[in-house]
């Protein structure tokens, strides 16, 4: 049976931000702002618009309290809702900075926090919007903010220094946000790809287990069903012409034979799908080739120059090879070749096709998820190759991708023989 492909979803899952997490972060901000306000107003007795600053803190307090009642405990904010809340935090902090010295206030560095939260948990679009909002607020605080609270005249800051502070803060916000966004997106891609790989492996394992259970059930039910069939035949011979029971007994005999045929078919299919837990590597390659009965181009298994070992018939090995052969079939012009070699140092499987080959710029990165098309004219995403590579690496293999000198792609899967012997298995 042909290996299933796994296309890239149009957008990677955005985890969003938990309401409880947002509430906790905002409580910390409210507490810090309130303590700072009290210290500056009561402790240092600096003059600034106390009521306006208190109103900004109160607005954040009211919004946080409302979140406790408007959302369930485990709710998450995504998309526009999350963007609106983080945008509010930026504006609220910008208002406080505007009232207390603008970019001359040491706490101006806190403008980075909402943007970094967005870069970690939200989409790139939301992060870019917040970057723009943060820089706009910084510019407004630079140009029009009230003086820094101070006893007497506040320290004079040259215009050039203020511009340098604005530029440094803007650059820092952009750099940190883009760095965190890149790392976060990479982590999301790998996590989603690994989840997909695990789901594929679990499905293959369950299908294999289901086949084994079906074979066992057919074997166990064969005895009782044989007895029922024998008794039904005897009754049918004795009551074949009986007007009351003859038709019923004949129907019972036919249905018993039908059940027996169904169980025999289940057992035969299970044995055909997984006849041996271990088999020669050459036989495994022929089995992989026969799994594509309607392939667009023929699959050739090259004869081995030396004897090949017996290998375990694992789900990881089979599905990994099927994915790579399927990829080769989609681009081959006239033929796909499977070959295997073995010597004292290593065991290797080669999959070659005469298609356009792998793109040179992606060759060093093949095996990573969501790279985009790996060959010219391809609509793929690289997820199938990632799944195959991950499954094969779980068997201890090393997967190398390259292009043939005469044209076409070449994939080499190799296992060190010494390591295999130490583990008492070939793969």
From TrEMBL:
Primary enzyme class: transferase
Reaction it catalyzes: ATP + protein L-histidine = ADP + protein N-phospho-L-histidine
GO terms of molecular function: kinase activity
Residue span(s) of domain Histidine kinase: 216-419
Enzyme Commission number, as recorded: 2.7.13.3
InterPro entries per the UniProt record, alphabetical: 2C_sensor_his_kinase (IPR050980), HATPase_dom (IPR003594), His_kinase_dom (IPR005467), RegB (IPR047770)
Keyword Transit peptide: no
Keywords for this protein: ATP-binding, Kinase, Membrane, Nucleotide-binding, Transferase, Transmembrane, Transmembrane helix
Transmembrane portions of the chain: 21-44, 50-71, 128-145, 160-181
Protein name per the record: histidine kinase
